[in-house]
Amino acid sequence: MLIKLVNGERKKWHPSDVEQLWVEVRDLFSNRKVIEVRLREDKWQAVQESGSVQLEDLPEWADGHPLSLLVKPTRGSGYRDVWKYPLRSDSVSVCMMLKEVNTPLFSSLQAVLPLTSADNPLLASLFEVHPELVPRPTRMSKVDQTRLCCALNIEAKLHHLFGRNDVVTQIEEARRDRIICKVNLHPEDIENAKSDFSKVPAWANRVLHEGFPVSFKEKVPEGSLQVSLTEDWKRADIDIDLFTMVGHFGEVLRNRITDQKTDPQVVYRQLFDQGIHPLYTLSSE
Prior knowledge:
The structure is a single chain. The chain has 7 helices and 13 strands. It starts with a strand and ends in a 12-residue tail after the last helix. The protein has helices spanning 41-50, 121-129, 142-162, 187-191, 202-205, 245-258, 264-273, and strands at 2-6, 18-26, 33-38, 52-54, 67-73, 79-83, 91-95, 168-174, 178-183, 197-200, 214-218, 222-229, 235-243. It is of the alpha+beta class. Helix 3 (142-162) packs parallel to helix 7.
């Protein structure tokens, strides 16, 4: 298995960033560690030069088991990245930002990559309705940075799943964890999307997406898009959840108790590991 390591700016790690790196293969059901591979000094030097890890001699039974990559950065504490069910033959690009998940995003938001909003109604209406979210050299507020990152995460996910820029035709409101918008979406779009969707029962959707009774959730373990629509499919409440199934209920409960919102930095990493690149980068510093 070849693991290619990049930082939040989508660049190769600098050799001075990392002190040690090791890999764990975990039991599929108990999540108990069954194999630990710590890279020897000679291999660690090769990782620093190439920006990738070549895992060799993994047993056949390791195919499809959860794999954890653990890092001890030169500064700060260790960080773990987890993938579900990789295969020994996989080549995986991994976004490792060398900081803890709960480290504030806001001081590390980099300049948004060049945006062409003329042919992208989501971006055009976002900056029209919320001029405070237009990227600018001066520092944005923490809340505005969160709202901008959330909208850009959703834009990238929609483009990846449906292959076009006009799913959202008009932003009505960009919140810290979702967008409320007008959409150009039809049942066949859901059926033909790159990922499978499941229909969310109305009773389960009523509390979190009131007024949008028709709801579909993407069937992926992490970074799952949920599109909740009005009966006529003209308006939508769109968000990205960190987890699905039981993990999502835990996320909702935690957010309710602590009054927190889904962290766009975590969503960014989950999208990156799905091969989806939002129109901004995160500093690794």
